Task: structure prediction
Amino acid sequence: MKNILLPTDFSKNSLNAIYYALDLMKGEACRFYFLNVQKASSFISDDMMVVGASGTIYKTIISAAKKSIDNIISKIESDYEFENFECFSIVDYDNFIDAINQVSHTKKIDLIIMGTKGASGLSKTLFGSNTVRVIQRCYAPILVVPDGCQFSHFRTIAFTTNNLPLFRPEELKPLQEFMLNHHAKLSILHVADEHHLAQNQSLNEDFFNEYFPKALHDYIDSNTHDIFQAIQNYLKANDIKMLAMMSKKHSFIERLFTEHLEETLAYNIDIPLLVMHSPSL
Result:
């Protein structure tokens, strides 16, 4: 049975990600853990005014959050009554990343699925700050669902690599499972720019030919400033419904967040992004 963690702040985009997750996992036996994280800075004076003499701010806030999750679970149990889903409520009073890592460890989480608002107006950020921190600091695989993205069956998953890191089979297990469960093909997009290592590309091609023998290989050779647009054009042209990346030292996604190139993709990411981590992290 899969253990899926669904962080939620009850916003529209987090609820959208929850229903994407439920539709994505249809037909599988899953335990869904709904996690809401509270922190002291979120409490305001109005909260204090409604607390009774025998209560505390902590108990009041936690109780309200649990009630909100219970309402979500109740609707899910009605809408998905024929699925083999189990739902659990967790409300924590902690640092957001610490709470996710703790639940990931204690509940043996296989996958985190969460939403992100993305860019809007003049805010040119690829993902919300919480999403970026989860990608960078949490060790469980994460599927990031853009705001408003609805589940649709995907025939192909694109895996993007700049071939700086080398891969191991266990690192890409989530990708293999998605392919198997959804009968999806794999398209490996080798990105070549000034950081590209031809020797690693050859080694990675051998790796993928062994463990993903039916995968298609495509190549983008571009300068750094145009590379993200080239990737986006590829996704659109090939009707890709999910993009996968590996998060490890010198990986493509590490560059995405450390070289401040988020603006290039800010208005273009509209499909789920699967980010996998090395088991050693």
About this structure: Residues 43-49, 119-126, 259-267 have pLDDT under 50 and may be disordered. Residues 2-146 form a domain with the Rossmann fold fold (CATH 3.40.50.620).
